[in-house]
Amino acid sequence: MTTESLKNRAKKLRNAVQGMFQVSVTHSQALELVAKEENFPNWDAACASFHSTTVSEVESAFALEATYSCIRQTLSPSTSAGALIVVWGVTGQGKTPTARALVDDLLRQPNAQNTTTILHAGNRDLSYPDNAAVRYVPETESILRCGPVSEQLVVVDDLRDPHTAIEVVAMVLAGVKAIVTIHAKSPIERIRTLLRLQGIGAGLLDRLLDNGQVKTIIATNQHGLNQGNTDPEWQAAIRAAIRLEPDFIYTARKNVVFVLPEK
Fold first, then answer.
1. Beta carbons of 253 and 238 less than 8 angstroms apart
2. 226 has which bridge partners?
3. Which Pfam families match (predicted)?
4. How far does Cα 195 stand from its chain's mean position?
């Protein structure tokens, strides 16, 4: 994603809005609309973003990590408590490949069941291995209205809808393990904003945060699907996240950044 691609989108958006609603839209207004779409406060902030930190500089830009005990509390497969893992970043940063890497590692574990049941909501860009039984919920549909959630894992790719946000929080409170991708630079605050738009749920999110049931993981293309996720340090990082193997917890720092929940 570059400022030039955003400008091209703004030009198309301007023409579409003017043609559909018969209203005058300036080029600067279209730029501001595109910036809002990408979750930036304004066009200047969007431009500054693409000229500052790059994905390759993730290690130095995001240094905070969750403690070992906090990760265990959130992701331990032996507990019945729900967990919310938020994969975050901007367009093109690798949110979907990072989520897929997390799921793949779960399915590769020796103690994983022969068939893992997954409920997938949102974009269908994320494919799954043969040993996963997947139920898809259309992007425009309510998750909970599509039937009881009995799957072992819920994946929401590209969380943007306030109603879906409250459904995710409710499911995690009920004991569901969920992986969510979200376009944001401050993922917890973005989810809180969606809940406020829905008018309910911000307090429930705070309860999950207080219980240590929420973690955020920065997305990165560096170890994306196109490279097959064969890097041993990347695999070690994922194992450290999901299975919490002590031998790998330190090498995990180099590849996956666990950011402490924001208050």
1. no
2. none
3. Glyoxalase_8 (PF20066)
4. 16
DSSP symbol at 28: H
Digits of tens for pLDDT over the chain (263 positions)?
567 777 778 888 888 878 877 778 887 788 888 888 878 877 777 776 654 333 333 332 232 233 334 434 444 455 677 888 888 888 877 888 888 877 776 777 655 556 778 889 987 767 788 888 889 887 778 888 888 888 888 999 989 889 899 999 999 888 888 999 999 888 899 999 999 888 888 888 988 888 878 888 887 665 443 334 445 554 555 554 444 333 333 333 333 333 333 33
Sheet hosting strand 214-218, strand order edge to edge: 132-137, 116-122, 153-157, 177-183, 83-89, 214-218, 258-259
Identity of residue 19: G
Q: Which residue has the tokens 């703004």?
A: 10
C-alpha to C-alpha distance for 226 and 190, rounded to whole angstroms: 29
Q: Which two tokens stand for residue 26?
A: 């300036």
How far apart, in Å, are the Cα atoms of 185 and each of 39, 61, 63, 179? 8, 12, 14, 17
Q: Which residue has the tokens 């997938």?
A: 120
Angle of helix 3-21 relative to helix 27-37, nearest 10 degrees, comes to 110
CA atoms of 212 and 183, how far apart (whole Å)? 22
Report which secondary-structure segment, H or E, holds 199.
Answer: none
Return d(Cα 244, Cα 239) in angstroms, integer.
6
Tokens of 138: 């259309």
Token duo for residue 22: 């018969």
